[in-house]
Structures are given as C-alpha cells and as structure tokens.
Amino acid sequence: METINYKNKNAVAILRVSSGRQKDGISHEVQETKCREYCEEKGFKLIKVFVITESAKRSESRKQYHEAMAFIKKQKHGNVLFYMQDREARNLKDVAENEECVLDGLFNIHYVSDRKIIHQDSPDADFLTRDFNAVMARHYSRNLTTRVSEAMTAKAETGWWPNSRPPLGYICQKAIDPLTGRVKNRGGTIAVDPNINNRKIVLREYELRSKGLSYEKIRETILEEGLITGKKAIQYRKNTIERRLNNPFYRGKFLWNEKLYDGNHEIFIPKEWLKKVDELSGQWGFTKRHFDSEYTVLTDGWLKCSCGCRVIYDPKEKKIKSTGETKTYHYYRCTNGKREHEKLVNIKNENIWAQFEPMLEKINISDDFAEAIADALNATEKKAHRATEAQIAEFKAREQELQGHEDKLFDLRLQGNVGQADFEKQLARIRSNREGLTDQLETLQKGLTSAVMETAKTVLELGKSAKSLWKDGAPEERRNLLDKLLSNPILDGLNIQFNLKKPFAVLVEMKENDKWCPRPDLNWHVR
Prior knowledge:
By secondary structure, the chain is α/β, with parallel strands linked by helices. 50% of the residues lie in helices and 14% in strands. The chain has helices spanning 20-23, 27-42, 63-75, 85-88, 92-103, 124-157, 196-210, 215-224, 231-234, 238-245, 271-281, 349-354, 357-363, 367-414, 420-447, 451-472, 475-485, 502-512; strands spanning 10-17, 45-53, 79-82, 108-111, 116-118, 170-173, 189-192, 253-256, 259-262, 304-305, 311-313, 316-319, 326-329, 331-334, 347-348, 486-492, 495-500. The strands form six sheets. The protein has a five-stranded mixed β-sheet with strand order 2-1-3-4-5, sandwiched between helices.
C-alpha cells in the first residue's frame, strides 16, 4: 500500500467553472458535494472552499486562483482538493509551479473524482501522467478555440457577420425565444443601428468623401458639425475614417479570416456615394500576402531582432573581375528602426537555416518511442473518459429531474393551483436551468471525442517526420514547419534564439529522461 506523508489534515477545496454561463448551473454544487464527501472519507478538516469562475487557460489571467493558492501557502494547509485535474489548470505554468510546491512538501494535491493523490513521494509515472493530462488539457483548449473558429466560419459562409461587434452603423440583433420571450445567448443577425446619430456619422463621411474631401477635412467637418463629441472626438482620427471608407462591410460584403464573403446585411449607404468613394480610394478588397521569393519567407515579421525591430532581406551584389559575372549574396539584417545598433550585422541566408537543424535532431523520435507514448496517452484518455461519462450520467439525471418539475408545473397550472405570473416565472427558471445543463452536457460530450488524441498523435507524427520534411522541403515549406514547432524566434547578432512550443518541449524532455517509461525493456535510441 502506498505510504503518504500528510503535513496536516487541513484541506482547502478549489472549485472552478470557466465562464459565467456555467456559474448558475450545477457544476460548482457537484464539485463541492464530492469534495465534502471526500474529506469525510479521508478524515480531513475542510477549512475553506474557493468558488472560482474564470478560465484556466492562461496563468497570468487567473487572479482568483492565485489568491486561493496564496492563502493555502500562507496558512500552511496540507491538502489542496480539485474535482478533476482540468479544474486545476489548463496551462503548463501553473501545473509546474504546483509540482514544485508538492516536491517541496508544502502540500499534497488531491483529484477527488479520480481518487488520486500527488504527493512528495509519488512515483515518477504519476507525475508523468499529470504532465500528459496537463498537455492534453492545454490542447483541448486549443481545439475548442478551433471548433469555435470553425463555427464562426460556418456562420460567415451563410452570409452573416460572426462577430458580436459589427462596424459603426450596425448592431448585432439577438434572436428571441418564442416560448419564453427571453433573448437567446446564441445566434443573431446583423441589422442597421436604430441609433440615428451613429448612422449619420457614417453617411456624412461617405457623402463628404464622394465630394472629393480629404480625410483630414472630413474629420474637421464632422467635429465642427458636432456629430462626434467628448472623449470620442479625441480618438477620432484620419485613419479611422480611411478604414471605414474602405471597409467592404458597407458594400454588403465582409472579411473573415482573410476571406471575403457576401453578406446578408442591409446596405444603407447610397450606391452613387459608394461608387465615387471607390473611384477615389482604389480597391477596398483584401488580398492575402504571398512571399515574393524563397529569400523573403523569413521577413514577414516572424523573425525579429533582439532589439524588437523587424529583420529584412538585404542582398548584396558583387562583380567578379575575372569573369565579369555579377554574383548575388543573400543577407539579412535588422532594420535598426530604434537606432540601438551602432553597426549593422549581416547574416547569410544559409547560416540562418543551419541554426534550426540541431533542434530538428532533438525532436526526432523513433517509431518505438512514439508507440510507447501513444500507449500511455490511450490509457490516460480512457481514464478521463470514464470520469466524464460519470459526470454526464449525473447531469442527465438532473435534466430528467427538471423535466419532471416542468411537467408537474403544467399540471398545477391546468388544475388552477398556480397563477399565470407565478407559472411563467417558475417555467422560465426551470428552462434556464435546463439550458445551462444542456450546454454543459454538450461540452462534456465533446470531451469524449478523440480530437485531443488526434492532436497528440499529430505531434508524434511530426516528431517522426520533421527531419525528413526539413531535408526535402523548399524554403516556404521549411518556414511552415517552423511555424508549427517554434515560438519567439529572435536574431541576436549572428545567433538565432527560439523556444520550442510546449508539446515538442515536453517531447524532448521525455526523450532525454527515460524514467517516465512504462515499458523499461525498450531501448530509446533514435533511428
């Protein structure tokens, strides 16, 4: 039996939901009930319960969470309870900091749903599983962002602006639930702003521009006429006017993810003004930028100098006296826009590419190594699925209970035991709770998909193939590969500095340390 050293029997529970939409649902209640039962089972004294509503995706944004952890450290309570690991964090920074506290003996971490304890003497495999869960939770957040983006793109394809903040002169008009009369949180279309003054500003800008006035003269006229006053007048600039006059939205189209869509929204600018403005301002569409040559793939702002300025392509030509031939040497340098360099340093094109090659060697993994990691991930995913399925069962039971309450309410109304006002109030409350449960069920059901595992498998496949992709790839293909692997590339003189993205950094760490290995008989030599 595992021996656990408890600093004391005091416990603090941290209950987290990620958004205000979940705050009024059952999630906090479920977590607290399970944590209290767990404390009774373990003989812990539950000192304090922190109820937190915030995302766990970014450490620097977690104000409530950090206040809770500061309280635990200051009061020296020995046990920190989370309902599940993703309630603790979906970023690797907080996971790493908590691991240091555990290893220093400050407290033990308990995952109540899994009945799992991470303590100072936990085996390396437990810490590895925790690391994997953290990486998978981080990827789940990314994947969720992708799904939201896909949903918004799907909306754009139907002709409706996906964002909730359309340009000046328009509003996002929410749909009304015909049963409850309440405004729906989801969906909505774009309509002309009923605020006449907002429309007047846009109309006046187009009218003045169609007469040939400059952007500065338009600004002065709008301010003199009092259409914009107060603090807004200070922020009203020429570039604001120029962007609005060139915005395709006012022509019945809109840009979304660098693609132009035909919109369903109403155009309220007169056609003759639009035509004249387009003649004066040129094309208002958007063209996706393409690299001019193989030597410009690093000069779009991705690679920056250590001073913060952009790195540019600066070729040099030299005439060879013996042959009369002109040879081009391909160099890069800082723009020195901040004037921080007394002397500019030029670095050759081939020297930049060469500095990325040792990194590719580091992330290169063998088929056996990839298979062992995949096995560990599969085991972790199955365990997470079991916990999620248990949650889903609880939520479905609660949903059936609410359906019973609604049926009973209708019976009371038919029998005349409940007045109309009370009936509508209670019905709205019940349906609001059911809507919250439905949203949470949708989220949990999505968690049962294999999207996270697919992402992990993609990382492993890239680890196996990155070296060959680099060797055979053209400069633009190499640049695309670097986008997937690296973040923050910096040119410091003649040296390139960069960070591996988290999944690949974890992969390298595992490759260099075989203590995590669930199959010690394997030999982790890279092929």
